[in-house]
Amino acid sequence: MDSLSDFAVKLREFQDEYNKRPHSTLGRPPEQMFEEEKAHLLKIPSIEPALLQFKEPRRVSNDGYISYDGNLYPVPMRYCTKRVWTEIIYGRRMKVYDEAGKLLSEFDLYLQKQASRPVHPEHEAMNRQFQEKKTRVRSALVEKFISTFGEAGQVYLEGLRNQAGANLYWHLAEIIRYQNIYTTEEIITAIKECLNIGSFHKNSIKRLLEKKEITPLSLAGYNKTNLNLPSMKIKRDLSYYDLNESEAAIS
């Protein structure tokens, strides 16, 4: 034999030839019996090699980062607040796995402290979706304000836009919420008064509305016989409050 490869070939030939001979006890060749039993053999369970390596647990922050040696590394956002496992390779590279051993991310380790937080690849898409949703909500709020309070509301909206700036939409939402107490006509009247004095703030409208007397709820058509009360016994017998001997002893 010239090499290990040559030895492996000859060993395989010997095994094949020997397994064709009848077994001294069973009376049948092992090769034939193996073909019959092959379908009934259990599959050898596969083990993820990564599970055999030493790893350290890390908790993912609520914004999708893990910390290692004072530096931050982004991981998929679906693992926020969950535990992942890190494997450090020769102090140069880090692999991140989930609880099942699935590889999530790989990073070259920072050899110096980060100057700033690294950009998370999923944050841009999330921020874009949030901005689009916020724009839709704000547009709907402006449309509702104008449709509810008409021309006076539109003029007041422009004044709020100039004076309230970024707080514009908070003012609009608060003014619309006044409809829970006051009528739309009363709010429009207050808006017009604020326009006359050049006051653009939701509290100005609120103070004018608070001067008005709130109309009590009408009881017209009220008839106590129309009340649909459940037919049940609502009085409790006084014997319910009697103490038995054990309770009396405790007290």
TrEMBL record:
It comes from the Bacteria. Residues 49-113 form the Transposase for insertion sequence element IS21-like C-terminal domain. Pfam families: Mu-transpos_C_2 (PF22483). InterPro entries: IstA-like_C (IPR054353). This is Transposase. It comes from Desulforamulus hydrothermalis Lam5 = DSM 18033.
